[in-house]
Amino acid sequence: MPPLPKTGSSVAKQKIISMVKAYRDNCRQLSTAGLQKRFHALKEETKTAWVSKQDLLSFFDANPAANSMRIYFAAHDAATAPVSIPEYDGQLTVIFVPAKAYFGEAGQLKIDDLLTDDGVPGANGFIPGQGLDDFPLCPPTCPEGDNLEADV
Q: How many Å separate Cα 15 from the centre of its chain?
């Protein structure tokens, strides 16, 4: 079988700024308006989430059968928002799911999610077969630092 296809490429800063601006001017603006109607006038849709390199490496270490990950776009609700951060209710998030990409008998690319309902946390705290979520979302917590905010 041939090697798996390359799934991404480097993206220049100006293209990132343009894409983030398009999200904020279109999707985020509409979603914020919906959240404000549903919750309160100060509620805002997610701008960013972040994950540490160590968490990504630990995620793959806990899922050795995974050769990739699928990224699902999702939203928190009252039942899934972290107890310590009820402000996440209604907000956009991403969930990383361990996946295995391979070629089927006819040569077509196939990707299986490697999710299970059980598992014991490994030494790194990650449970094999479970997704990675609970990323710090901005807002409500927007750490300062050198980021795209001034450019978008």
A: 20
Residue 29 neighbours by CB distance under 10 Å: 11
Output the CA–CA distances (angstroms, integers) from residue 139 to 8, 47, 143, in the order listed.
Answer: 27, 7, 9
What is the pTM (predicted TM-score) of this model?
Answer: 0.84
Beta pairing partners, 110? 102
pLDDT in tens, 117-138: 777 777 667 788 888 888 889 9
CA 84/CA 44 separation, integer angstroms:
18
**What does the alpha-carbon distance between residue 23 and residue 27 come to, in Å, rounded to a whole number?**
5
Using alpha carbons only, give the angle 31, 9, 13 rounded to the nearest 5 degrees: 60
Count CA atoms closer than 13 A to 78's CA, side-chain side: 2
Peptide bond into 140 cis (omega under 30): yes
* CA quadruple 35, 40, 46, 50: dihedral, nearest 10: -140
